[in-house]
Amino acid sequence: MKRKFLNILALSSILTLIGFLMDGDAKEPSMLLRFTEFFGMVGIIFLLVSTFYFGSGLVYKTIRKA
Question: Which residue spans traverse the membrane (predicted)?
Fold first, then answer.
């Protein structure tokens, strides 16, 4: 279970990094704001991916059991 969380965290970090590199908006001058935005996006993507992953696993087990 711990390994799954680490894999999802790595995936969300990579997706966030790609998103920040592809973003064409002007960068904020404050480094604190940049780090806050980055870790906030990592958290949001982590929650979305983990909800989808574990939710689909639960649905799959429920359907398979019935």
Answer: 38-60
Which of 44, 48, 50 lies closest to 8 in space, CA to CA? 50
* C-alpha span between 13 and 21 (Å, rounded): 12
pTM, two decimal places: 0.83
Helix (H, G, I), strand (E, B), or coil: what is residue 31?
helix
Amino acid identity at 22: M
Residue indicated by tokens 């989808």: 52
Helix axes 31-65, 2-22, angle to 10 degrees: 130
Neighbours of 48 (CB within 10 A): 13
- Give, for all 66 residues of the chain, the pLDDT tens digit: 799 999 999 999 999 999 988 987 777 788 999 899 999 999 999 999 999 999 999 999 999 987
